[in-house]
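agent> step 3/5: call structure_predict on target 'Lysine N-acyltransferase MbtK' (Streptomyces lydicamycinicus).
agent> reason: downstream docking stage needs a structural representation; sequence fetched in step 2, passing through unchanged.
tool.input:
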Amino acid sequence: MTTPLFTRTDAALGEFSLRPVDPYGDAELLHRWVTHPKAAFWLMQDCDLAAVEKEFARISADPFHDAFLGLHNGTPAFLMERYDPAHRELVGIHAAEPGDVGMHFLSAPTDTPVHGFTLAVITTVMEMLFADPDARRVVVEPDARNTAVHALNKAVGFEVLRTVSLPSKDAYLSTCTRDQFLATRGDHR
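tool.output (status=ok):
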């Protein structure tokens, strides 16, 4: 088992941690998650297992893109991707600044939702990203129709800049600085 790169304890829900995705060892699990109807905005609904392996192997080999498996109390529970918006996803759409880091996250589909879980996941993701002292601002581009994630983004400090047209969706280009995130946590350094 791979050692987590980042761990955070949530007072109500316990331990959240992230480790690098193993493109082959995690493929079956990730395939179940990304093809589930609740993961429609992940845009991998029609992928077979081989396509999921190929996509995560591509991400693993990309110097500007990483994927992390999130664990809740030691059990796989979410997925996070980090990318450099100067080189991936938003090239030509967003004028990336030094310290910008792009992010996607997906909570695993479940039939037994836990109140506050997804907020704890995005908080963990943001804390991991800002644990890097070079990270100054997180950039996201959620589907404009994904109202649930817009509420979560707002809760951790994201500000919608504008709607942008991407090849697979219309998206709300949004950013969150370290200070905006800390303010939502009650930290006004």
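agent> step 4/5: record observation. The longest helix spans residues 117-130.
agent> proceeding.
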